[in-house]
Write a structure and sequence with these properties.
globular, 22% strand, alpha/beta, four-stranded mixed beta sheet, Carbamate kinase, 81 residues, two-stranded antiparallel sheet
C-alpha cells in the first residue's frame, strides 16, 4: 500500500505529532483495535479475512516500489489476524 510521503504506519500523524511512533509490524486486528487510519475498516477487514499481507511504504522515495517487490524490509508490514 503506497502512501504519499509517509514511510509506514504510525501511532499518530507524524506530520502533526512529533511523538508519533512508527510500527515495523502489525496485524490487521491491530489496525482495527488501535483505530489506526491506514485504510478504511472495510479494506482492512477484507485483507484480514482473505489473509492478504500488506506493506505500507512511501511511494515518493525513489526505488521503494522495487524494494517492496523484491521483499526488502521497508515501511510497515501488516499480516494475519
Amino acid at each position: 500500500m503506497a502512501k504519499n510521503g509517509v514511510d509506514g504506519v504510525y501511532s499518530a500523524d507524524p506530520n502533526v505529532d512529533s511523538s508519533a511512533v512508527k510500527f515495523d509490524t502489525l496485524t490487521h486486528m491491530d489496525i482495527i483495535n488501535k483505530g489506526l487510519h491506514v485504510m478504511d475498516s472495510t479494506a482492512s477487514t477484507l485483507s484480514m479475512d482473505n489473509d492478504i499481507p500488506l506493506v505500507v511504504f512511501n511511494l515518493n522515495k525513489p526505488g521503494n516500489i522495487k524494494k517492496v517487490v523484491l521483499g526488502d524490509d521497508i515501511g510497515t508490514t501488516v499480516r494475519g489476524k
